C-alpha cells in the first residue's frame, strides 16, 4: 500500500509539475493479476483497483493495523472491465461493466475474480473509515428490482450542461443517502456526451469532504487536463486513461479533455449531501 500525506494549500501553490503529480496523481492502478492501493491521509481514503486474472484475495496489510481490510472500514466498487465476481464472506456478487457494489464494515473475506482471465474485470474501489455496519448490496445503473440488488433511481440520474457550453454530461449517483446507505462514502459516475469535454465547470469546493476522480474511456492518444488548487491559485495535472487524482477539500476539481470521457467520483468526509458545495464564480477563477 502506497502512502500519501496531506498537503497545505499554501505549499501547493509553489509545487512544480513533478511535485504536483507525485502528491496527487495516482498512476498504474490497473495491473493484471494484482491489487493496488493508495492510502491518503486526506480523510483516510484508500483508492485501489483489483484486476484478477486468477482470483485475488483482499488483505489488510500492515499499514492499516487491522485484522482484515474492512474491520473498521466500508468500501464502494465499480467494475470498468470484463465481467467479474466479488465474493464477500461466501456470497457471490456478479458485476458487469459499470455495475457497482457497496460492502459494509465488518465484512471479513473478500475475493475478486474474473469470468475470463483474457478480458479480466477491473474493479475500482474507494474505502473510508466507518463506524457502523450497513448492508452489502449490488448496484446497477439499469435493470429490474431483485433481492440484494439496488437499481439507481431515476432521481439520481441527472443531466447537466449543454453542448453549446461543451459540458453536456450525465451524472449517475451510486452510493448516497436514500439509495445505498453508508457511513461517509458517496460514489458515482459522470459520462460526457460526444462533443463535450468539460466537467464540473463552473467549479466548486467543499470544505466538508474531499474527492477522488478516476478518468477512463479515453483512447491512448487522449488526455484530460485536470484542474486543481485554490480558486485563485489554480494548477493542472495532465492525466491519461485509467488514472486517478486526489482532490483535497480546499481544492477545485474540474477537467477538460481532448475528447469526451467518463469519470468515477468518490467523496469522503463529514457531510454526505451531494449538493453541499461552495460555488466559484467564473469571474473569480485565476
Question: What is the CA-based Rg, rounded?
Answer: 18 Å
Low-confidence stretches: none
In terms of quaternary structure, the protein is: single chain
Strands of the largest sheet, in order across it? 1-3-4-11-6-9-12-13
User: Whole-number average pLDDT?
Assistant: 95
Family: Belongs to the KduI family.
Function: Catalyzes the isomerization of 5-dehydro-4-deoxy-D-glucuronate to 3-deoxy-D-glycero-2,5-hexodiulosonate.
Cofactor: Zn(2+)
Catalytic activity: 5-dehydro-4-deoxy-D-glucuronate = 3-deoxy-D-glycero-2,5-hexodiulosonate
SSE topology sketch:
Blueprint: E1 2-4, H1 9-12, H2 17-24, E2 25-26, E3 34-40, E4 46-51, E5 56-57, E6 73-79, E7 84-88, E8 91-95, E9 100-103, E10 110-114, E11 123-129, E12 137-140, E13 149-151, E14 157-160, E15 169-175, E16 186-192, E17 198-199, E18 204-205, E19 209-216, E20 224-230, E21 233-239, E22 243-247, E23 254-257, E24 262-269, E25 278-279
Parallel strand pairs: 1-3, 12-13
Antiparallel strand pairs: 2-22, 3-4, 4-11, 5-10, 6-9, 6-11, 7-8, 7-10, 9-12, 14-15, 15-16, 16-24, 17-23, 18-25, 19-22, 19-24, 20-21, 20-23
Enzyme class: isomerase
Cofactor: Zn(2+)
InterPro entries: KduI, KduI/IolB_isomerase, KduI_N, RmlC-like_jellyroll, RmlC_Cupin_sf
Amino acid at each position: 500500500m502506497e502512502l500519501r500525506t496531506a498537503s497545505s494549500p499554501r505549499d501547493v501553490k509553489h509545487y512544480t509539475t513533478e511535485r504536483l503529480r507525485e502528491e496527487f496523481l495516482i498512476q498504474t492502478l490497473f495491473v493484471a493479476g494484482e491489487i493496488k492501493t493508495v492510502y491518503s491521509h486526506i480523510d483516510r481514503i484508500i483508492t485501489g483497483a483489483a484486476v484478477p486474472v486468477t482470483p485475488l484475495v483482499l488483505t489488510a496489510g500492515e499499514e492499516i493495523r487491522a485484522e482484515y481490510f474492512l474491520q473498521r472500514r466500508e468500501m464502494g466498487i465499480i467494475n470498468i472491465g470484463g465481467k467479474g465476481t466479488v465474493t464477500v464472506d461466501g456470497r457471490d456478487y456478479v458485476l458487469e461493466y459499470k455495475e457497482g457494489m457497496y460492502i459494509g464494515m465488518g465484512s471479513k473475506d473478500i475475493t475478486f475474480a474474473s469470468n475470463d482471465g483474457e478480458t479480466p474485470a477491473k474493479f475500482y474501489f474507494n474505502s473510508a473509515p466507518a463506524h457502523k455496519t450497513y448492508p452489502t448490496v449490488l448496484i446497477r445503473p439499469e435493470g429490474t428490482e431483485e433481492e440484494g440488488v439496488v437499481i439507481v433511481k431515476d432521481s439520481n440520474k441527472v443531466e447537466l450542461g449543454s453542448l453549446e457550453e461543451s459540458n453536456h454530461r450525465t451524472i449517475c449517483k451510486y452510493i448516497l443517502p436514500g439509495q445505498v446507505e453508508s457511513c461517509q462514502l458517496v460514489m458515482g459516475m459522470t459520462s460526457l456526451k460526444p462533443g463535450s469535454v468539460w466537467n464540473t465547470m463552473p467549479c466548486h469546493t467543499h470544505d466538508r469532504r474531499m474527492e477522488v476522480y478516476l478518468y477512463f474511456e479515453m483512447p491512448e492518444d487522449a488526455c484530460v487536463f485536470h484542474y486543481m488548487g485554490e480558486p485563485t491559485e489554480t494548477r493542472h495535472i495532465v492525466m491519461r486513461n485509467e488514472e486517478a487524482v486526489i482532490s483535497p477539500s480546499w481544492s477545485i476539481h474540474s477537467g477538460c479533455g481532448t475528447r469526451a470521457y467518463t469519470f468515477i467520483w468518490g467523496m469522503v468526509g463529514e457531510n454526505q449531501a451531494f449538493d453541499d458545495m461552495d460555488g466559484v464564480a467564473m469571474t473569480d477563477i485565476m
